[in-house]
Amino acid sequence: MSSSLGTLFRVSTFGESHGVGVGAVVDGCPAGLHLSEADIQGQLDRRRPGQSDLTTPREEADQVTILSGVENGLTLGTPIGLLVHNKDQRPGDYGEMDQVPRPSHADFTYQAKYGIRASSGGGRSSARETIGRVAAGAIAEKILREEWGVEIVAWVSSIGSEQSSDIDPETVSRAQVDATLSRCPDQPSAERMEALVREVLDAKDSVGGIVSCVCRNIPAGWGEPVFDKLDAKLAQAMLSLPATKGFEIGSGFAGTQLRGSQHNDPFVQKGERLGTVTNNAGGVLGGISSGEPILFRVAFKPVATIGQPQQTADFSGKPVTMEAKGRHDPCVVPRAVPIVESMAALVLLDLALRQKVRG
Fold this sequence. Notes:
This protein is of the alpha+beta class.
């Protein structure tokens, strides 16, 4: 099972949702970087459960501990071990699901692949695995910000049928995003989204949505031709997240409705660099960054585990009625915002280091 991402900046995650803990090992972090738990904790706090009545009530502080690779506040250039202990695991909530694969969950496919699976909480298929990604992504983002001035901001652009009004990717900030429970920076849209999530929660159901993300101040030239294109690596990273079902960059699928004369981005001089008037390409041309903001969207399906009775079958094929217990988000997208940002940071830093080595 592949649990690693990256070439020069390589991250491997470990742990199960109801095990002792989860975390990551980061290999390839440059030496001499000022780094402490506080640099990482902020993004973990944005990801953690129990933030509001829109999220799972599971109580986890998600406090990170740096196990290795840092001494006297400076990175050593050696692997950085990151650990977050699970404090509020309740494997007993999953007892009756031991022999029943949850509809649209990975229980069935993990059992089919390995002949065994984590019996509670989904194990590695749980969104709790993303803690290691977020912790590692916070390190990557610190390097990107300090060396290149890169800014990465994600936000919720839709929940169910509720879509946000236009958000300016040139100016949107994390402070604006975090000002609402739904993490939609448009207040009227946020209120409608939050009302929908509460309605779904009361019905013991779930709902999906879309997270948009902008990466600003990316120099032209990052990304590798053909198989390691920047947009291809972003797509791989985002679609590796639990519950994701779609990825699009720039104009995305809507761009298919335009003519080439409408879709093309004409070049123009912007200060000391060549840029484009429009950005339908989403900041990537031929798999390489163009210097324009990188803009993409990630679609998340409704959470698979719901409290409503569902007619399904157990592993032997016997019809059963499942009414899932446990504590689950009615909608994952508000908590997915820092996860998307972190995965973008991991991809961008790895490609930045590859370009730096090229000289």
